[in-house]
TrEMBL record:
Top-level taxon of origin: Eukaryota
A cellular component term, taken from the record's GO annotations: extracellular space
Active site (UniProt): E309
Species whose genome carries this gene: Sesamum indicum
Listed name of the protein: Carboxypeptidase A6
Family: Belongs to the peptidase M14 family.
Cofactor: Zn(2+)
Keyword annotations: Carboxypeptidase, Hydrolase, Membrane, Protease, Transmembrane, Transmembrane helix
Bilayer-spanning residue ranges: 404-421
Pfam families assigned to the protein according to its UniProt record, in alphabetical order: Peptidase_M14
Keyword Methyltransferase: no
């Protein structure tokens, strides 16, 4: 065989080998994007899990069956051609009462990370229990109703709808939003700081804090609603986290004690002591920068701000995302929903007790100065900018303005009164001079 033929054979072999490699690569990529997955990857179990569309439809009809307790808003926001839509459900007993500022306000969000489907199922379960279509075992409904009468709860069942749709299209490991930004790194506290093991596929914080419409909507919601309790519900492990995520310490003093004792109670009595309890940064094994919970605690001044991680299969392969983040059999699916529903309702009841207790002073003092003028203005501008503003938002905006004017009015009244009094005291000095000065 001449050198020429040998070279020819070699190059043919090389072409053949690269063709095989290419074909192999092609089938893998093709298979993945098409939702046909390799053997070692668990597909979504559609017998247990709703699609996002079906879930939101079910929630909508639940709300329509219970207009006395539930109401629904759809909010959307757009940035550089990317649009996000969010459904917000509000629970309040005796719906017709005027907005009662003495009630405990709770804001819960689910599905911020796209692949964590189980969290959105928990949202549906909580709303079904709130509307009395489902029940918690061993809980007396009238006692529960006395607690619920003291609350207003806002639920965002699927925060990251665009990302979720990608997961439903077969990208089972996607956690970011519809344009690749991690919504739990897009907030302003310690934003953009990257650890050594930073992986853009997982943690891309976006081009700027609040660059994403989803984060803008959530932030606006926190500004208008002023929650006392915030829970960002995730999966991937079992944990009850309090601030901080960006450093490995917790807040100190009374806020720490209040949060820690609540989480210990939930863990011990409702979650079989399975959960890690503590600051996210200290317990999870990595620091997270620009998270929603750190913002809620530090900037929005929400006195009790948590991240709950409700399920995780730590033995699953890192490529097998559906299995890693979601229970795949009916027994564990039901156990997760039952245990965590019970834990949430216990949290509601502890929250109400704390409001009544001595500790409420600490919460109140922390809560009083929670709206900085900066936040107020940002909230205001966001309201103005958003042309999708619905009645509720306009109402909220109106309330904010009224609140601001009222503060101004009070301040000027006090000043006027002060001036008036000092005048009177000057003019009446001869009369009162009889007193020994
Ligand atoms: Zn998550």
């Amino acid at each position: 065989m001449g050198l020429h033929r040998r070279l020819n054979l070699l190059s043919n072999l090389l072409i053949f080998a690269s063709f095989v490699l290419f074909a192999n690569h092609f089938t893998l990529t093709y298979g993945k994007s098409n939702g046909t997955l390799h053997l070692d990857v668990t597909p979504i179990n559609h017998d247990l899990y709703h699609t996002s569309g079906a879930l939101l439809e079910e929630i909508e009809s639940l709300v329509h069956r219970h207009p006395d307790k539930l109401s629904i808003e759809k909010v959307s926001s757009k940035n550089k051609g990317y649009e996000a839509q969010m459904t917000v459900v509000t629970y309040r007993q005796k719906w017709k009462e005027s907005d009662d500022r003495t009630k405990l306000r709770i804001l819960l969000t689910f599905g911020q990370h796209a692949r964590e489907l189980i969290t959105t199922e928990l949202a549906l379960r909580l709303l079904s229990i709130l509307s009395e279509e489902q029940f918690l075992p061993n809980v007396d409904r009238s006692t529960l109703n006395r607690t619920l009468d003291r609350l207003i709860i806002k639920v965002v069942p699927v925060e990251n709808l665009n990302g979720r749709k990608r997961v439903e299209d077969g990208e089972l490991c996607e956690r970011r939003n519809g344009r690749g930004v991690d919504l739990n790194r897009n907030w302003s506290v310690d934003w953009g700081k990257k650890e050594k093991d930073y992986d853009p596929y997982e943690e891309n914080p976006g081009p700027a804090p609040f660059s994403e419409p989803e984060s803008q909507i959530m932030r606006k919601l926190s500004v208008s609603f002023e929650p006392h309790i915030w829970v960002n519900v995730h999966s991937g492990m079992e944990a009850l986290f309090m601030p901080y995520d960006h450093k490995n310490t917790t807040p100190d003093g009374i806020p720490y004690q209040i949060m820690k004792s609540m989480l210990d109670d939930l863990n011990h009595f409702y979650l079989r002591d399975h959960c890690l309890v503590g600051s996210g940064g200290a317990s999870v094994g990595y620091l997270a920068h620009g998270t929603a919970t750190d913002y809620m605690y530090d900037i929005a001044r929400v006195p009790m701000a948590f991240t709950f991680e409700i399920y995780g299969d730590l033995k699953a392969s890192s490529k097998d995302c559906f299995r890693m983040f979601n229970p795949i059999d009916i027994t564990s699916f039901n156990r997760v929903l039952n245990d965590w529903s019970a834990a949430f309702f216990q949290m509601f009841s502890i929250g109400v007790q704390q409001m009544d207790g001595v500790q409420s002073k600490a919460i109140a003092s922390r809560f009083d100065n929670w709206v900085s003028i900066d936040d107020y203005l940002n909230g205001y501008l966001m309201h103005r900018k958003s042309r999708y503003a619905k009645k509720m938002e306009v109402l909220d905006l109106g309330l904010q303005e009224i609140r601001a004017y009222f503060r101004l009015f009070l301040l000027s009244s006090v000043l006027l009164l002060f001036m008036f009094c000092s005048r009177i005291s000057k003019s009446t000095r001869p009369i009162v001079s009889g007193m020994s000065l």
